[in-house]
Amino acid sequence: MKILFSGGGSGGHFYPIIAIAEAIYERSKDKKLIIPKLYFMAPAPYSPRALFDADIEFIPVPAGKIRRYFSLLNITDLFKTLYGIIEAILSMYKIYPDVVFGKGGYASFPALFAARLLRIPVVIHESDSRPGRVNAWAAKFARKIAISYPEAAEHFKIKDKSRIAFTGLPIRKEIRDPLQNGAREFLQLEEGTPVIVILGGSQGSQTINDVLMDALPDLVKRYQVIHQTGRGNIEVVKQTMSVVLKDNENAYRYHPFDYLNDLALRMVGGVADVVISRAGSTIFEIASWGVPSIIIPLSKEVSHDQTENAFSYARTGACTVMEEHNLGAHILISEIDNIVNNRSISERMRQSTKQFSHPDAAAKIADVILEIGLEHE
Question: Can you list the domains of the chain with their CATH numbers?
Fold first, then answer.
């Protein structure tokens, strides 16, 4: 059996594919199937190491973005996409996979178009509460549509809603399960002081970083702060921190990191009392850790998806939402205090994460892919 994956150029699209690939290997062994050959078709490999570790062959195919605003790049990217479609058809015809899995995003369009033309079965997964344009289009012919948020189902304009399954977002084992043993030593944390974690994504968040710097002198009085700044922000944050925490006796409680690897993220999940994050795929990681959170979505002008994702998560009771236009140091500190100092609130949030977390998401999607692949063989 041959299975081809395709998805956008972000970690939110890429790493769920790795999680599904891991589940496919496990489920194949459980079902005593011949281990499938896996491929990943996209403009760039995103993480060559992750593809190598998962034994996934990369097939480069260009794809262009179609922006929602006027840009001359839309014209050049249109030709890039047309060329990518031709490349995808030729490459896919050579390997002729039994099933194609699309994670959404502009990068998946050539592969999904080729699969449609070659009549290869398609399965798609939508990460957000409102589907993107590529997934909304692919849903018309996809055999199965997996969704992360139940609200997404109503946005797919298809008659047969039985093709839609609420699975949650696949999370890799490497970060799904929180780790406490050795975490405080590894992260250099003291005992007895609550831990606040700020995750701005691999690129970081300038807005969150700026507010945190204002709040830091008050926060370190009673909390330890683990801060993922983003690789491009670490030096500026350290310079600012050296000023705002100058001569502060609690400065040692602030721990900035440019990036937290898989092991560090699991440890963060094991020791955090509150996590502050954007409203991307990190929401599902936080839910899998069972930690209360404050979600700060990107503004609606930048991303409608994040705002809808944040409030969908908030409706479970697992988090509070702070929109950027309301964000300030004093408000942030007050919200942190409210969660940490009120055991009933924090415990309710921890229990509510269980409603949102779907640890079997990758296995469910893997089973569907294998079932369809076996039919097509």
Answer: 2-171+359-376 (3.40.50.2000), 175-356 (3.40.50.2000)
